Hints:
Structural class: mainly alpha
Number of helices: 5
Number of strands: 0
Helix content: 55-70%
Radius of gyration: 19 Å
Amino acid sequence: MVQLTLRIDEALARRLKAVAAAQQRSVNAYASAVLRAAVDPDLVTDEAMRVRERLAQAGLLAPPSPSGSRPEEQAVRGARHRAGQGRPLSELIGEGRN
Length: 98
């Protein structure tokens, strides 16, 4: 099991705690269920469907990805080539500080 630390605003933390308590779950159990519902298209429960609907409305629903599939080598080479043609991040940050 992996531990994940999130930084969220206080109002969201209060709402998360309240919903978890109303469902008689720990914050960790509730947050895990929400995250699982967001990324697992095979998870089908009423609660998961409600969460997925809200995430979809917010544009935050993770698209399904085929498990274990890898992109074609040509696509990876093309992406690497295109990625190397941008401006360095340090330049962009420097512009914002001037």
